[in-house]
Amino acid sequence: MKSKLIFFGSLAALLFLVLRIQGTSLITETTPLGIIDFEFANTPERLNKVLFGWSNADIKVNIYLDFVFIPFYVLFFSNAVQACASVWANQSMSNLGLFLPKVVYIAGGLDLIENKMMLDSFAGSFTDTSLVLTSCIAGAKFLLLLVVLLYLVISISYLFFYKK
Predict the structure, then answer these.
(1) Which DSSP category does 4 fall into?
(2) pLDDT at residue 164, rounded to an integer
């Protein structure tokens, strides 16, 4: 388990760093969150504002890199929560750690759908509804990952400060 965590965690961290560096050109005064502003561009007006001034190549490369990043963060987080499940004496927290890998896979699936929809939007194939849906999918993905991160932080805190 430890070697899986190190392997997938290292690759996920490396790809996250590559995404951040490659996506630097997407951070502007209008888009301080870079690609995340694109994920949440829920109207045609906002989409045009977000895309204005961005390099077409940089947008595509960032989204395609994210497709590569997804399996590594999914495998890292799913293995991490499973590992944390074993530290809990509390059965509910242990069971939650065994359930959360499914949540991580759902978040990864949502990320894949979101990326496809962003590529469609970038190509000009969007509707008001598809932009709102893309934004909702992005929000759901981030919410699910936040739950997973909270579980990991609580579990690691428990392990270091309370478990004897």
Answers:
(1) H
(2) 55
